[in-house]
Design a protein that fits this description.
- This protein is an alpha/beta fold.
- It folds into 2 domains: 2-123 and 301-334, Medium-chain alcohol dehydrogenases, catalytic domain (Quinone Oxidoreductase, Chain A, domain 1, Alpha-Beta Complex), CATH 3.90.180; 132-277, Rossmann fold (3-Layer(aba) Sandwich), CATH 3.40.50.
- Helices cover 28% and strands 27% of the residues.
- The protein has 11 helices and 15 strands.
- The chain has helices at 42-48, 124-127, 130-143, 158-167, 182-190, 199-204, 206-211, 227-234, 259-262, 285-299, 314-323, and strands spanning 2-10, 13-20, 28-37, 78-85, 97-100, 107-111, 115-117, 150-154, 174-178, 195-197, 215-220, 235-243, 266-269, 305-310, 330-334.
- The strands form 3 sheets. Strands 3, 4, 5, 6, 7, 14 and 15 form a 7-stranded mixed beta sheet that branches. The protein has a 6-stranded parallel beta sheet with strand order 10-9-8-11-12-13, sandwiched between helices.
- Helix 11 links the parallel strand 14 and strand 15.
- Helix 3 packs across helix 4 and helix 3 packs across helix 10 (285-299).
């Protein structure tokens, strides 16, 4: 059969290409795509040409083998329906809805081990955000928020908002979020932040935060390399900064000459592909997926969708996310 895939072919250039798709092999299923979510972080870096092209796309995801060099297919948040079974696959998979870490394309073959069946009660659009929900869960686990702590989340994109929604369910003393876009700040308050401020506003109040007893934990989720310096300004002595942003090929000076050294501030790299080492004795990916589905059902991340595009409108979708973030948040392709 034929399928159509989105290819990034150069900075700010995407193409739809038709390809042959073989029948699924042994142990595989063939999936018809229903909806996929666009990552406004990593995918837009790829779209803009700001991702290091020599770097592996994702060595942990079967469908993303290879580098980030053009031309490439990219994306990792697809939900669809099983339409054909390979040899050895049980009939219970026929017609089943699944999530796959797969690029944007109209159909795919996948090993059973590489997909997540949708649990009961999960809407298809909420399922498309499973990867983001899992990332938010991983971020919270890496930060280890404690009762009564003051927490700041820098950046309220999809991952930042879902992280805020999870943190809002902790007994924190104060949960403050920061984003330059009013649309995102509004969503943030709706999801449980005690307050949400513009970066310029919170930067001018950094001293007040510290005099109140300091910020215990800061999440840097903006995607902006320079935001780490605001995180360093906000965090108190012996505090933690969890960096969930990926900056691609971009760099910025980090001010480690101030309070960082004497304050014994901890900067933690957080990335969802691996489970935090101290948890690995009890947690595996299956357990984390179970929790990600639970919170996707409760939080309903589809409420963050602002735009839905037909698959043929891919170029328009990426242009919107690259140029009009003040009005766009969650973006879905509908097949």
């Amino acid at each position: 059969m034929k399928r159509t895939s989105i290819y990034f072919t150069g900075p700010q250039r995407v193409e739809l290409r038709e390809e042959e798709l073989d029948a699924p092999g042994a142990g595989q299923i063939q999936v018809r795509s229903l909806v996929s979510a666009v990552s406004a972080g990593t995918e837009i870096l790829v779209y803009k040409g700001e991702a290091p092209q020599e770097m592996a796309a994702d060595s942990y995801i079967s469908a993303l083998r290879g580098s980030l060099a053009y031309p490439l297919k990219y994306g990792y948040s697809m939900a669809g329906e099983v339409i054909q079974l390979g040899e050895g696959v049980g009939d219970e998979w026929e017609g089943r809805r699944v999530f796959a870490f797969n690029p944007h394309e109209t159909a795919l073959n996948a090993n059973i081990a590489d997909v997540q069946p949708l649990p009961d009660g999960i809407a298809i659009e909420d399922a498309a955000f499973l990867a983001n929900m899992e990332t938010a869960l991983s971020l919270v686990q890496d930060g280890k928020p404690l009762i009564g702590e003051k927490v700041v989340v820098l950046g309220q994109g999809i991952v930042g908002l879902l992280t805020t929604a999870l943190l809002a369910r902790h007994p924190l003393m104060r949960l403050v979020t920061v984003d330059g876009l009013e649309l995102r700040r509004d969503f943030s308050r709706r999801l449980g932040a005690h307050e949400s401020q513009h970066p310029e506003q919170i930067a001018s109040q950094a001293g007040d935060f510290l005099r109140e007893g300091s910020v215990d934990l800061v999440y840097e989720l903006t995607g902006d390399p320079e935001a780490i310096n605001l995180a360093l300004d906000l965090v108190g002595e012996h505090g933690r900064i969890v960096v969930g942003s990926w900056y691609g090929a971009r760099q910025a000076p980090i001010n480690l000459g101030g309070k960082f050294h004497r304050g014994r501030i901890k900067i933690i790299s957080s990335q969802v592909s691996q489970i935090e080492p101290t948890l690995r004795g009890r947690w595996d990916q299956a357990r984390r997926f179970e929790q990600a589905w639970k919170w996707a059902r409760e939080i309903k991340p589809s409420q963050l969708v602002t735009h839905r595009f037909r698959f043929a409108e891919a170029a328009e979708a990426y242009k919107l996310l690259a140029e009009s973030l003040e009005s766009a948040l969650g973006v879905l392709f509908q097949y």
